[in-house]
Design a protein that fits this description.
By secondary structure, the protein is of the alpha+beta class. The protein folds into three domains: about 170 residues, no CATH class; about 220 residues, 3-Layer(aba) Sandwich (Rossmann fold); about 100 residues, no CATH class. The chain is about 25% helix and about 25% strand. It is built from 14 helices and 27 strands. Strands 2, 3, 5, 6, 7, 8, 9 and 11 form an eight-stranded antiparallel beta sheet that branches. An eight-stranded mixed beta sheet has the order 12-13-17-14-20-21-26-27. Helix 9 packs across helix 10 and helix 9 packs parallel to helix 11. The chain starts with 7 loop residues before the first helix and ends in a 12-residue tail after the last helix.
Length: about 575
C-alpha cells in the first residue's frame, strides 16, 4: 500500500510523480444501442493479469492478494456516446492509487457502469444510489448494468497509450425462483419502507414448509427465522440425491476436494431428516431484504436504510404466519444465523424481545464496538494503523486458518472506496456505517472514519454505541430487557475467526456473566481452532456444521418451548 499518501511530504512527492507520469488515459462510453438515456453511476475499471475469466468477476473482498487492480469514478448524467476519462483526481484506485502506478506489462481490462437512481426520501434526503435489481446488490452481475467486452492491453509507463472502452453490453434480468411442494416464495409491498424511500419497496421470503403441510390443515407451526446474507433460495435443502455428473471442485476455505458434492449430499440428507417420521414440524423462512446499500438490511431500523426492523417483524412475519399457518406467538418464534445473520439474529431478539423465544447467533458481526473487528471505536484514534512513538503497524482485516493476513483494514476500505464513494460500494464496511450511523449533512451515511486517512469520528462512534452496540445496549437496558431475554441469548464463534469477530464475543460474554436479577441464563461457546463461521457444534467440522443450521439448534429450541410455553399453548398440532 502507498502509505506515503498519509504524510504531507510524501503526498506531495506522489502528486509530483503523478504529474510527470499520468499513466494511460482510459475513456469509457456507452452507445445508444445499450442505453438511450443519460445515466448516473459509478464507472468501475479493472486491470487483471489473470486471463482465465472476465475481470469483473475477479474482484473479491476475501483476499487482497487475489484481487486485480480496481479504479472507480462517479459520473452524473453521462449521455450515450459521451466519454468519461478516468485517470485524474476524481479516479480512486486500489491497490494502485492511480493509473500512473500501474506497472508495465500485459493486462486484460474491462469496465462496468454500476447504475444509480435518484431517491427522494421522506427525511428530505435526495440521493443517488444503486438499486437492487434482484441480484443481491452485486455490481458485477446487476441486471441493467452496462459493461465492456474485455480486451488485452500493454501498459508501458514510459510511453502511455490511450485506451477506449465501450459499455456496449447490458446484464439481463434474473429469473424468479419457482415454487415447489416444499419451498414457497412470497413478496409483499412494505408500507413502512415505501413511505421512507418515496417509492414502492418490497420484502421477500423463501418459506420451507414442513412435511405433511397439506395433509394436516388444522396444524399450526412454530417459526424459525434463518437470518443471513441475500438468500438465493432456501439454503441446504435438496429433494434429490447428489448429481453423479457433478465435477468436483476444491474448497480453498475448508481445504476439501469435492466440497460441492459434499454440499449436495448434506442438503439431500437434510431433506430426508426433514421428512422423517419423528422430526418436529415447523416453518423455516429466509428473508430477501436487499436494498440500495447492501444485500440485506441487518433487519433493524436505521437512519439511512429506514424501518427494516419494523417492516420485517410487523409486516412480513405476520404475513408469512397468516399464509402458512404459523402459531404467531412469541414463545413459538426463534431466530438463528451466522456472520451477518448472527448479528441479525441477536439484534432481532434484543430489539423485539417479546416476539422471539431464543436467538442463536453464530460468528456474529461485531456485537461490541470495543472490538469492531480489531478496532476499539471508543478509544482508538485511527482505524487503519496502530501508531507508536516512531512506527505504525497496519491493522489486519482478513486472515486464514494459520493466522496469515490476507488483507488489512486499509486494503478492505480502499477497495470499497474504489467501488463507490459515499457508502455506495455495496461492501461490508460501507453497510456497517449505513446501518449503524446517523445520516450525514449530504444525505448519505455519516462516516465512522475517514475512508482515506482512517481517522475515527468520536461523535459518530457515540451514536453507534447508543443505538447498535448490542453488548452495551443489553447491559444498559437490562433492568427492562433482562426479564424478557433471560435464557434466550446463545452466541458461538471460532477463536480463529477469519474476520476477527472473536474479541467482540469475549467482551460480550464478560458483560453477560456480570448481569444480575435475572442472570442472562444463556450460552456462549468457542470453537478451539475454528474459523469463520463456527456455529456451536464441537463434534462436527465447520465445513459440515455450517450446512446444519435448520436442525442443529432444534434440541435447545424444543427444550425452550417445553419450559416456557404458556398454559394452553398448542404443543401438539405440529407434532404429527
Amino acid at each position: 500500500m502507498l502509505r506515503g499518501l498519509f504524510g504531507g511530504l510524501a503526498a506531495a512527492v506522489l502528486a509530483a510523480g503523478a504529474a510527470q507520469a499520468a499513466g494511460p488515459a482510459v475513456s469509457v462510453s456507452f452507445p445508444a444501442s445499450a442505453e438511450a438515456k443519460a445515466l448516473d453511476g459509478r464507472v468501475i475499471l479493472i486491470f487483471s493479469k489473470d486471463p482465465q475469466s472476465e475481470p469483473r468477476g475477479q474482484v473479491t473482498p476475501e483476499s487482497a492478494l487475489r484481487n486485480p487492480f480496481v479504479f472507480g469514478q462517479t459520473v452524473d448524467g453521462l449521455k450515450p456516446g459521451q466519454a468519461v476519462t478516468l485517470g485524474g483526481a476524481a479516479t480512486f484506485g486500489w491497490p494502485a492509487r492511480n493509473l500512473a502506478n500501474l506497472k508495465a506489462g500485459e493486462y486484460t481490462v474491462q469496465a462496468v457502469l454500476n447504475r444509480y437512481e435518484t431517491y427522494h426520501r421522506a427525511d428530505g434526503a435526495v440521493i443517488k444510489l444503486p438499486p437492487d435489481m434482484g441480484e443481491g446488490q452485486q455490481w458485477a452481475s446487476k441486471p441493467g448494468n452496462l459493461y465492456s467486452t474485455p480486451i488485452k492491453v500493454t501498459i508501458d509507463p514510459a510511453h502511455p497509450k490511450p485506451i477506449a472502452l465501450s459499455l456496449a453490453n447490458k446484464i439481463g434480468p434474473i429469473t424468479p425462483k419457482a415454487d415447489t411442494p416444499y419451498i414457497k416464495h412470497i413478496r409483499i409491498k412494505s408500507e413502512r419502507l415505501s413511505k421512507f424511500w418515496g417509492r414502492p419497496v418490497y420484502l421477500g421470503a423463501h418459506i420451507l414448509l414442513p412435511e405433511g403441510f397439506e395433509a394436516h390443515p388444522d396444524a399450526h407451526y412454530p417459526l424459525m427465522v434463518f437470518h443471513g446474507h441475500f438468500p438465493n433460495d432456501i439454503s441446504n435443502f435438496r429433494t434429490t440425491p447428489p448429481d453423479p455428473d457433478l465435477k468436483p471442485d476444491y474448497s480453498e476455505r475448508f481445504h476439501l476436494a469435492g466440497y460441492n458434492r459434499i454440499q449436495q449430499q448434506q442438503a439431500y440428507d437434510f431433506y430426508k431428516r426433514w421428512t422423517s417420521k419423528d422430526f418436529p414440524r415447523f416453518l423455516v423462512i429466509e428473508i430477501d431484504h436487499a436494498n440500495p446499500y447492501f444485500d440485506d438490511s441487518y433487519a433493524v431500523n436505521s437512519a439511512n436504510l429506514g424501518p427494516y426492523g419494523d417492516a420485517i417483524n410487523y409486516e412480513l412475519i405476520p404475513e408469512v404466519e397468516k399464509r402458512f399457518r404459523g402459531l404467531a406467538q412469541g414463545w413459538a418464534r426463534f431466530t438463528y444465523g451466522g456472520s451477518t445473520g448472527g448479528w441479525e439474529a441477536l439484534a432481532t431478539q434484543v430489539f423485539y424481545p417479546d416476539m422471539y423465544n431464543g436467538a442463536f447467533a453464530a460468528c456474529p458481526d461485531p456485537i461490541d464496538f470495543r472490538a469492531y473487528t480489531v478496532i476499539n471505536l471508543y478509544k482508538d484514534k485511527n482505524a487503519y494503523a496502530l501508531q507508536g512513538q516512531a512506527a505504525s503497524v497496519e491493522r489486519p482485516a482478513i486472515r486464514n486458518y494459520l493466522g496469515e493476513t490476507f488483507a488489512t483494514q486499509r486494503d478492505s476500505n480502499y477497495l470499497e472506496l474504489a467501488l463507490g464513494d459515499k457508502s455506495r460500494s455495496g461492501g461490508q464496511y460501507d453497510i456497517w456505517q449505513a446501518v449503524f450511523g446517523p445520516r450525514g449533512a449530504d444525505g448519505y451515511p455519516a462516516p465512522i472514519f475517514d475512508k482515506v486517512s482512517g481517522d475515527i469520528d468520536p461523535k459518530v462512534a457515540a451514536y453507534w454505541r447508543e443505538n447498535y452496540d448490542l453488548s452495551y445496549i443489553m447491559q444498559r437496558d437490562w433492568k427492562t430487557l433482562g426479564p424478557k431475554l433471560a435464557g434466550k441469548v446463545h452466541i458461538y464463534v471460532g477463536r480463529g475467526d477469519n474476520y476477527f469477530l472473536t474479541d467482540a464475543v469475549f467482551y460480550t460474554e464478560e458483560m453477560l456473566n456480570g448481569l444480575k436479577d435475572p442472570a442472562y441464563g444463556g450460552e456462549v461457546a468457542y470453537g478451539a481452532k475454528d474459523e469463520h463461521c463456527w456455529n456451536g457444534d464441537p463434534n462436527t467440522p465447520n465445513a459440515y456444521s455450517r450446512l446444519h443450521y435448520n436442525f442443529m439448534y432444534l434440541p435447545k429450541i424444543l427444550d425452550r418451548i417445553e419450559k416456557s410455553a404458556p398454559p394452553g399453548a398448542d404443543l401438539k398440532s405440529w407434532r404429527y
